TrEMBL record:
<dbReference type="GO" id="GO:0003924">
    <property type="term" value="F:GTPase activity"/>
</dbReference>
<protein>
    <submittedName>
        <fullName>DNA-binding transcription factor rap1</fullName>
    </submittedName>
</protein>
<dbReference type="GO" id="GO:0007165">
    <property type="term" value="P:signal transduction"/>
</dbReference>
<dbReference type="GO" id="GO:0016020">
    <property type="term" value="C:membrane"/>
</dbReference>
<dbReference type="InterPro" id="IPR001806">
    <property type="entry name" value="Small_GTPase"/>
</dbReference>
<dbReference type="InterPro" id="IPR020849">
    <property type="entry name" value="Small_GTPase_Ras-type"/>
</dbReference>
<dbReference type="Pfam" id="PF00071">
    <property type="entry name" value="Ras"/>
</dbReference>
<keyword id="KW-0238">DNA-binding</keyword>
<dbReference type="InterPro" id="IPR027417">
    <property type="entry name" value="P-loop_NTPase"/>
</dbReference>
<dbReference type="GO" id="GO:0005525">
    <property type="term" value="F:GTP binding"/>
</dbReference>
<dbReference type="GO" id="GO:0003677">
    <property type="term" value="F:DNA binding"/>
</dbReference>
Amino acid sequence: MVTALRGIPHMEQFTAMRDLYMKNGQGFLLVYSITQQSSLNDLADLREQILRVKDVDEFPLVLVGNKCDLEDERSVGREQGQRLANEWRCSHMETSAKARINVNEVFCDLVRQINSKTPEPKARSSKQTKCCVV
């Protein structure tokens, strides 16, 4: 399995590149800061863009509340993130990149989702088929 991580450019001049990343991406981490409500609000539009570009109803997705080490500065409640994840039918985790809390777990969850959606390649038969040209 090859895993490539790419940040999706948020600036308008990168629209074509962003759409290409969305189309080719097998799974997505949508990350917001628990200290900034607007960062969560912005994700609804991003999710809609992914749905539109991929032309699907669902895709592997983890909604990630980052900066959980800054509990005193929290402006997005844990329940609010979980409600949105339930609405979007995806998983939700809170992380701290700084304190290394749940960072590996988020990626493991996403990879598990991708693997469960990706069909297993057909096993090669040990018998080789013979070809006869007449």
